[in-house]
Amino acid sequence: MTRKQRRLMMIGGAGVVLVVAVGLVLNAMRGSIVFFSTPQMVHEQHIEAGKRFRLGGVVEPGSLSRGEQLAVAFKVSDGAATVPVAFKGILPDLFREGQGVIAEGALDTAGVFKADTVLAKHDETYMPKEVADALKKQGHWKDDYEKKPPGAGPAASASAAGPAR
């Protein structure tokens, strides 16, 4: 075997090892990847029951109801569609109606999204990029989400108004 053939065999062998390693990594990650969907995407794609994904949108005003032992039900909307959500646990402090939310879980056979994790946006100017893009696509985006200057939150507007009386 010539020197050139040995070099090509080494390069080919390294390529095969690299392809196998990438395949194993992707196969291991397949079970842990969770995709993001809006309520409209859930209705359009007919996601099967039990498949985990993240549902993002806005908590529909008037839909929040609290039950026994930390059970909560609410609806998530993107302006075009709505998905009912059931969650059992402690909600984030900033969770409320009319605010952005991302819930992670799966649909049950009745079409209710059973969430095991609920994330609320952290202040009035933050919106996850995927949710913002979906709202822009639906035409429900408010331009002032991006244009608020830093420090323009409730504390800044209260101090600009003067001392409380």
Question: What is the structural class?
Answer: alpha+beta
Intertermini distance: 93 Å
Low-confidence stretches: 145-165
Beta-strand fraction estimate: 25-35%
How many helix segments? 5
Outline type: elongated
| Helix content range | 25-40%
Describe this structure in words.
The protein is an alpha+beta fold and 165 residues long. The protein is built from five helices and seven strands, in the order αβαββββββααα. The longest helix is centred in the N-terminal third of the chain and has 28 residues, at 3-30. The protein is elongated, with a radius of gyration of 23 Å.
Write the layout of secondary structure elements.
Blueprint (H helix, E strand, L loop, with lengths): L2 H28 L4 E3 L1 H7 L6 E8 L5 E2 L4 E7 L4 E7 L11 E8 L5 E8 L8 H10 L5 H4 L6 H7 L5
Could you write a compact summary of the structure shown?
This protein has 165 residues and is of the alpha+beta class. It has 5 helices and 7 strands; from the N terminus they run αβαββββββααα. It is elongated.
